[in-house]
Specification:
The protein is built from 20 helices and 23 strands. It is elongated. The protein starts with 7 loop residues before the first helix and ends in a 7-residue tail after the last helix. The structure holds adenosine-5'-diphosphate and magnesium ion. Residues 29, 32-33, 93, 98 line the site of magnesium ion.
Length: 589
């Protein structure tokens, strides 16, 4: 084939493909235009998941009659003058592509009136063909009506997902923008039904309920951190609230929704050792920085950005989130009300009037078996964080003096700030897990079995195991294929010595099955957690004083001694203050 220049309509369609991928991308571009026009009210009407209609009206600055034709042309924009401007962009748009792109793959009508004009004007673009302009009486602002999206690009239509999915995408997008701009009133209708309505009063938590539901929104923790010109604010989930994927991790940078793997990684770093492996937090974080510090001209859909000093931004995000978390996930404490309300026994956790349920506590209540849960004492204090010794790195333990073991399950210890009840199983899990992690790149110490053990697996599991053999070596398992669907186990991690090696291998293979995150580090952390759980001292197991001492010392040395690798608390703290009040030594009820 000879080389030729592509016809204009082909070029437009190729370009449009980058900007308009699905109905939600139309919504995104038009909402961004309304926000750039300083709208205080944005109304979105969707029919048939956006295939039939996407209509967005705003009360923003409007487009003058003389400029209307220009506005729908490619590379026509009022937001950028010179190439230099590209490096300090303060608007959401700047490429001048959205209206032209949408007009080339749909039937689009733009109607607009700036406040200074007496009448408005309307222009229709159908598959890139611009029709004559008509004058019309309309309120100030702009209405963009997009009908029959992709009517002339049937191939694109085929790539759309189900109506439910496309509708959800639009809901999610509108809600997130509403959150980012709480001072703007958003109203979204899907097939005539109101799907989102915000008041524009600036209250983000109210909007959060739209995104997550009331209960979840109530639990979200607030994050704010400001440091020479950079700010991070927003919401993150407490460690008790997680999802099995990263879809609820949202970042806005200078008011722009971005998808950025490294920002998400910074967030996950902050949760390190707090979350059950394979679980992910929810977040909506807003980052603000000097526009010159960020390059937004990376991608036609403007969903990616580059930071001039990425390390600073990531470290800021991580510290902001970590702070928010530590301020709110103390060791569960027993509140006096828990005691007094039920004389003669422990009561179940109850939301205390002011503070609400402590997140760490609530998690323990959720995850424990009913027997365990009912064995756990008392309601929890409100927002009061754990009494941490001054000068101690946050989250770490003070030196503890062993008192003894009770019920062959809990250790009792005394610290400078009161009494600690420690769940020996959870604590040992934590100790083993950190031992694994400290190994870093060193393979975990393994011990050879006297007699290699044979294991036979169903073929799909055999394939999974075979693929993961190198990783398992790293964790202390030496296993070799031995005939069809059969393996020979030579060594196991020293941690597991004494337990059934085949059961351990089976547990590990089951983990591969459950795993939905192909990231190696995560698979490994999850396996390590699983192995630690198996290897840890069980509840109901009597320990010698030396063993109890050793466990306490090792727990004190942990980075995150207060939770087990699965996120459950390892201990309950009864502060001196609480004891004194309960014994009437200090004025109180
Ligand atoms: P960009 O937003 O990158 O400038 P668009 O194609 O989205 O490109 O819009 C082209 C121009 O049309 C904008 O620069 C702006 O001047 C004008 N415009 C588009 N939508 C609106 C709106 N809702 N209100 C006011 N002006 C608008
Ligand atoms: Mg735009």
């Amino acid at each position: 084939m000879a080389i030729r220049l592509l016809a204009d309509d082909v070029v437009s369609q190729i370009a449009a493909g980058e900007v308009v991928e699905r109905p939600a991308s139309v919504v995104k571009e038009l909402v961004e235009n309304a926000l750039d026009a300083q709208a205080s009210r944005i109304e979105i009407r969707i029919e048939q998941a956006g295939r039939r209609l996407v209509e967005i009206s705003d009360d923003g600055s409007g487009i003058s009659q003389q400029e209307l034709r220009l506005a729908v042309m490619r590379h026509a924009t009022s937001k950028l003058e010179s190439a230099e401007d590209l490096f300090h962009i303060v608007t959401l748009g700047f490429r001048g592509e959205a209206l032209a792109s949408i007009g080339s793959v749909a039937r689009m009508t733009v109607t607009s009136r700036p406040s200074a004009a007496q009448v408005g004007a309307s222009l229709r673009v159908e598959g890139g063909q611009v029709s004559a302009l008509t004058e019309t009486g309309v309120p100030t602002g702009t209405v963009v009506r997009v009908e029959d999206l992709f009517y002339n690009v049937p191939a694109r239509l085929k790539f759309l997902k189900s109506d439910t999915t496309e509708r959800q995408q639009i809901d999610q997008l509108a809600t997130r923008y509403a959150l980012a701009y709480p001072g703007v009133r958003f109203h979204l209708y899907q097939d005539g039904r109101s799907a989102l309505r915000t008041s524009g009063n600036g209250d983000r938590r109210e909007i959060l309920a739209n995104l997550y539901g009331v209960e979840t929104a109530r639990q979200m923790l607030e994050v704010t951190l400001e440091e020479d010109g950079f700010t991070v604010e927003g919401f993150v989930s407490p460690i008790s609230l997680t999802r099995s994927n990263r879809r609820e991790i949202t970042f806005f940078v200078n008011g722009r929704w971005v998808q950025d793997g490294s920002l998400a990684a910074a967030l996950l770093q902050a949760y390190r050792n707090f979350l059950m492996v394979g679980r992910f937090p929810l977040s909506v974080l807003f980052i603000r920085l000097d526009p010159e510090q960020v390059d937004v001209n990376v991608h036609p859909a403007k969903a990616e950005v580059r930071f001039r000093t990425p390390d600073r931004v990531f470290s800021l995000v991580q510290r902001a989130v970590r702070r928010g978390l530590l301020a709110s996930s103390p060791v569960p404490q027993i509140s006096p009300s828990g005691w007094t309300s039920q004389p003669g026994g422990w009561s179940h956790p109850q939301p205390s009037a002011g503070g609400g349920i402590d997140p760490a506590w609530q998690m323990s209540a959720d995850l424990r078996t009913p027997e365990q849960a009912s064995a756990m004492p008392g309601a929890v204090t409100g927002a009061q964080p754990a009494a941490v010794q001054p000068g101690l790195p946050s989250g770490q333990l003070p030196l503890l003096r062993l008192v003894g073991q009770i019920g062959n399950t809990y250790l009792v210890a005394e610290g400078p700030d009161g009494l600690y009840l420690i769940d020996q199983h959870a604590a040992h899990e934590r100790v083993l897990f950190e031992r694994f992690q400290r190994g870093g790149d060193q393979p975990v110490v393994s011990q050879a079995l006297l007699e290699p053990a044979m294991i036979h697996l169903p073929s799909y599991q055999a394939a999974m195991l075979e693929a993961q053999l190198p990783l398992l070596v790293h964790l202390g398992f030496q296993i070799e294929p031995f005939g069809p669907e059969t393996f020979r186990v030579h060594t196991i991690p020293v941690l597991l010595v004494g337990s059934d090696p085949l059961a351990a291998v089976r547990a590990v293979v089951e983990d591969f099955e459950e795993d939905e995150t192909p990231l190696q580090a995560e698979v490994e952390a999850r396996l390590a957690a699983r192995i630690c759980k198996r290897a840890a001292i069980k509840g109901g197991q009597s320990l010698s004083t030396e063993e109890q001492q050793a466990l306490l010392r090792e727990l004190e040395a942990c980075q995150s001694p207060r939770t087990c690798p699965h996120g459950r608390p390892t201990m309950i703290h009864l502060s001196v203050d609480l004891l004194e009040r309960q014994f009437g030594r200090r004025g109180s009820r």
